Amino acid sequence: MAHSQDAGDVSRRVTLALVGAAAGVTLYVLLVELPDRSDNTRLVLTLASLVGGFFALLLAAIGPVELGRAVIASGAVAALSSGLVTWASFRFADAEDFLSAGHGLAAYSLLVALPLPFLIAAARPDEGWRDFPALFTYAWETVVRYLVAWAFTGVVWGVILLSDQVLGLVGIDLIERLIDIDGVPWGVTGVALGLSMAVSFELRGLIRPDLVLRLMRLLLPVVLAVSVVFLIAAPINGLSRLFGGISAAATLMAMAIAAATLITVTLDRDDTRAARAAVLVWSARLTALILPVLGAMAAWAVMVRVNQYGWTPPRLAAATAAAVTLAYGLAYGVSVLRGKGWQGHIRQANVWLALMLIATAALWLSPLLNAERISANAQLARYQAGEIDAAGLDLWTLGHDWGRAGARALDRLRDESDPDLARHLALFDAAGSRHEYLRSLEGEAMPRQIEGLRNLLAVRPEGAVLPEGLFDGDRNMTHYLLEILTERCGETTPGGAPGCVAVVADFMPLSPGDEVLYFTLFNGAVEATAHAGTAFLRSEDDFTSYVFASDPGLIDRILAGDYRLAPVPLNMLVIDGHVAGVSP
Hints:
The relative contact order is 0.06. The longest helix is centred in the N-terminal third of the chain and has 37 residues, at 132-168. The N and C termini lie far apart (86 Å). The chain is mainly alpha-helical. α13 packs antiparallel against α14. It folds into 4 domains: 2-208, no CATH class; 214-369, no CATH class; 372-430, no CATH class; 453-580, no CATH class. It is built from 22 helices and 7 strands. It is globular, with a radius of gyration of 32 Å. The chain has helices at 2-37, 41-61, 67-89, 95-101, 103-113, 116-123, 132-168, 174-179, 184-202, 210-217, 220-237, 246-267, 278-309, 313-337, 342-364, 371-384, 395-400, 403-413, 419-430, 434-456, 475-488, 554-559, and strands at residues 458-460, 500-505, 515-522, 525-530, 548-549, 573-575, 578-580.
């Protein structure tokens, strides 16, 4: 029996080493050699996604599943995933543009990775594809096996490179010449990866995820405490920051995903292996009840942004992720509310939620969830409904980043009889890059911005005006000032005045003419900004330079003329025509 077992181990090691070598060499040919010989990027994408997905699955499946079934199952999933990602790539004229978008590659990765535990469990006679204990075990064992395998592969390369250095000391460069041969490093990496996958399977009784999972459980009370503090502090400190951007939604989703993962780890594969410590059990239960709230807040944050600016592929991806997060939260929360047996309910919910996630990834790569088409049509509809004007359209993104759907929307915009839109389209057509297009838009809009700012910005002393040509200097500085001043003039001081004022005075007597110092409200404080020189705003008895003051009433006092011009108390060292000193 032992001899038979040893023979099986050797056979598996040889098989996986050969599979790894084939994976490495084949991927080298597809990713390095083929692009140099063919301009058909879609062919490269198709073959690379097919081969990469197949070998990634096969390396993990051999061992838990006998070779023939592993090949068939891995080939089926890889073919489906490759077919969908290739289909989705036709949204763009070039597959490289599809890959640059990023979200399609993320969906493909989920579509390859998530079915593996289901395939292993379904292929084993004593288990089934819905058997959660088996799914949990195979999922985490695969993660650990790959981590160990990549760590071993790194060690192998460390030994190879060190050996090359040692032999180089005596003039032997055999290793260097071998690894310089095209494809050899890829093959060596594949062999090391395959061999370590085989050995890690043989030692699965020793190399188990239990240690990692038990350590992860200890983080659950921390996540619960942070979530509770957040939910208490959010309404007290105001919700505006939460619902103004995708980054806040992403943070909430990341927290919810971490919480769901830690709950699953704490509950383990069944009740006999689940955490028994009361603090962990109650942490899992309470966190599960908080998850729907986090998911709902993430979804709300995304939709606020969508209602403000419309759909874009990243916002659609964020909305999809938020919907999945909310689904996990609702499933976990309802499981706890069902009372007795809530741990088992969460485990079974995880099976169906994983299947839902696989289906969502497949839909994302299908025409039903064509992010570019949905986004382009939504932006076009917003313009035609009068919700945004020509300046609110990102023509460069439509024409260059959203593939064929964006180009079609751009063609429809050319049929509109809007002079402003025609002017923007002319700038778009003349630009050779996004930067050039944005610079053209800035230059085209700047005169109107300057005129609008002159009408909006209060100037002191009474009767003073902003000097002509003030905004003719550095274009980047001018654009920055215009954006900042226009935005902050919309704020309101304690006295009810606009949150901006300009003071014209001879702040630098050694320079000809007057200078302009701007004071604007920013997060309840006042900021000083200048065209020339370095602005500072500080207490009279504090010689540390600041550009902020915490008293928002400063603008009201400037508007009332309650200020005076005074010299800076400064001594300089004069040395043969040069001066030196310390500036406040």
